[in-house]
Amino acid sequence: MTPTHILGISAFYHDSAACLIRDGEIVAAAQEERFTRKKGDPAFPRRAVEYCLGAGGVEVGDLTYVGFYDKPLLKFERILETYLGTAPRGFRSFLMAGPLWIKEKLFTDRQLRDELGYAGEILYSEHHESHAASAFFPSPFEEAAFLTMDGVGEWATASFGVGRGNDIEILKEIHWPDSLGLLYSAFTYYTGFKVNSGEYKVMGLAPYGEPKYVDLIYRELIDLREDGSFTLNQRYFNYLTGLTMTNGEFDRLFGGPPRVPETNLTQREMDLARSVQEVCEEIMLRMARTVHRETGLDRLCLAGGVALNCVGNGRLLREGPFKELWIQPAAGDAGGALGVAQLAWHRHCKGPRQVVPGKDGMKGAYLGPGYAEAEIEAYLRSVGAPYRRVERPALLSAVAGLLAEEKVIGWFNGRMEFGPRALGARSILGDPRSPRMQAQMNIKIKFREGFRPFAPSVLRERVSDWFELDVDSPYMLLVAPVRKERQIPMDDAAGQLWGIEKLNVPRSDIPAVTHIDYSARIQTVSRDTNPDYYDLIHEFECLTGCAVLVNTSFNVRGEPIVCSPADAYRCFMRTHIDHLVLGPFLLDKEGQPEWKESGDWRQEHQLD
Ligand SMILES: [Fe+2]
Fold first, then answer.
1. What are phi and psi of 116, to 5 degrees?
2. Distance from Cα 148 to the centre of ligand 1, integer Å
């Protein structure tokens, strides 16, 4: 029988993506930004589609269905009602958003057909249904509750329900304009970071602050109910009527205007970050308790942008009512492409769902392009880059040795990850024991704020030797403390230090991955999903006794994660990465020809 191929697409909002499934199996998935090199590219994912079709060996004419991750008309209705409902104040931003919406979004159907050259049926799912599908269908559970939380899709901003066998059912929703994602984004904006990408920075900044504003947030901004539902006091927000997230009332409440981006961070921003993070965690916990009570199920799947809040996820795991959690690695809107494709297969085609207990369907999230040895070599020759080809076992021990000497390694291996985290396919690696590594990697390699913590990759079997965690965390979406006996208490002098100054005080015997509050954002590495990466960490452990590596995404600030060998080599040459591993090839920074830039890339990425 001819296999059923379904192409899922998420586009026109932020972080466009495509995903191809064959008889329910995920064949390929990738975000458009990786190909176009425009961070969070919202355009039609032409290159990602091209890649997915190529990876599946099919053409547009072979597709049984195309699925689109939300319903443009519903979204348009929300936008229209919002603006009409708040006129005349809302009129100005309607003029700004209107033409774009009408041109780009309302005519999605025709646009999809034109872009793809596709004449078959297009299936649309609701935004939160796409998130829910991406949370439940690839999970290792036959039956589970799901919870989705994000900024906004059409009307819903959060939903929960039940996944069973090959279908999902949404039981309840929270509607616009009450949105946990937008509350968090309001503080992201107010603390001077970019909405939709700076939320991570707010989360990273939170432990340096005090929860000084929590009471004020509960008193003025949000009416939070016991069951986790809430109403936001729109008096303080500007996203309904204006072009910013917060307004003058908000400034008065918190004692000043938003921080100007790129200016110095003060204790105030840290306190604001800590406060909104605490509120966010409290809402997540209350919602989870409600979901547990109403579904009576012990397993929970998460998706939607808020599910990338791995500190909140860690608390859900430790303090929440669920026995097991599974979190979609592409929890943001890119994952909607995967969700709608799976929904089309299971619901529309009545396709079966095979569950292997303990194993999810994401293939480690290694769903992006991989490059053959010959392709990599041809590229290296074309730029005259000196390299050595080293057989696998010798390559891994050479890299482990370099890491132990505090060298920083660009690690490009196998298929690229789907979702925002680098998981050992497009990663920059370092020695977590080094007290200098965090500052060095932040400033000389990533060109980003020094406060931002790095995450550890640890062998799955060793995770509980290093961290207070003993479950799978393959997608780096759970935060847990470093084990007590590894922690170094802060002495009185260190305790007196102000906010970010505390950064330089080692907090454990793996200081480069231990945040100020002893927490770490953990990736557990299993041999069956990424054998090379697993073996590398194992080799490092044999050499040093440490089964942990620093793993940060292979990019510089403001740039998408590298996709191709050319992207990786460019990033290697622009930064202080010491060695580059491209498949079987090992490159040393010393001896590389001089790197010439075509334009001002630092300005392009807004680096100083
Ligand atoms: Fe979303």
1. -90, -25
2. 8
Four-residue CA torsion sign, 266, 271, 276, 277: positive
Among 111, 26, 58, 112, which residue's Cα sits nearest to residue 339? 26
Structural contact between residues 556 and 428, judged by C-beta atoms closer than 8 angstroms: no
Q: State in Å: Cα 152 to ligand 1 middle.
A: 6
pLDDT (tens digit per residue) in 410-457:
999 999 999 999 999 999 999 999 988 888 888 778 777 777 779 999
d(CA 220, CA 222): 6
Residue 515 alpha carbon to ligand 1 centre in Å? 28
- Could you report the per-residue pLDDT of 306-353, keeping only the tens digit for each? 999 999 999 999 999 999 999 999 999 999 999 999 999 999 999 999
pLDDT reading at 199 higher than 70: yes
Rounded Cα gap, residues 188 and 550, in angstroms: 26
Question: 455: number of CA atoms within 13 Å, CB side?
Answer: 28
Nearest partner of 82 among 160, 178, 174, judged by Cα: 178
| Three-state SS letters, 196-213 | CCCHHHHHHHHHHCCCCC
The alpha carbon of 301 and the centre of ligand 1 are apart by a number of angstroms equal to: 15
Interval between CA 151 and ligand 1 midpoint (Å)? 6
Closest listed residue to residue 464, CA positions, set 549, 357, 548: 548
- End-to-end CA distance of the chain, in Å? 58
Q: Which residue has better confidence, 172 or 491?
A: 172
Which of residues 389 and 73 earns the better pLDDT score? 389
CA of 333 to the centre of ligand 1 (A): 5
Tokens of 501: 């100054």
Tell how far the Cα of 197 is from the centroid of ligand 1, in angstroms. Answer: 13
Which tokens go with 476? 């780096």
CA dihedral 282, 283, 288, 290 (to 10 degrees): 110
Determine the 3-state secondary structure of 482 from DSSP.
Answer: strand
Provide the H-helix boundaries in 383-449: 392-404, 437-440
207 CA to centre of ligand 1 in angstroms: 26
What digits encode the pLDDT tens for the residues 380-408? 999 999 999 999 999 999 999 999 999 99
CA–CA gap between residue 538 and residue 548 (Å, rounded)? 9
Are 72 and 105 within 8 A, CB to CB?
yes
For ligand 1, the distance from its centroid to the CA atom of residue 500, given in whole angstroms, is 32
Pairing type for strands 388-389 and 122-124 reads unpaired
Under 8 Å between Cβ of 66 and 120: yes
Question: What's the 394 CA to ligand 1 centre distance in angstroms?
Answer: 44
Q: How far apart are CA 476 and CA 561, in angstroms?
A: 16
Distance (angstroms) between ligand 1 centre and the Cα of 332 equals 6
Query: What pTM, to 2 d.p., does this model score?
Result: 0.92
Sheet strands (E) in 81-218: 122-124, 143-149, 156-164, 167-175
- Compute the distance from residue 309 Cα to the ligand 1 centre, in Å: 14
Choose among 177, 137, 171: nearest CA to 6.
137
Distance 542 CA to ligand 1 centre (A): 43
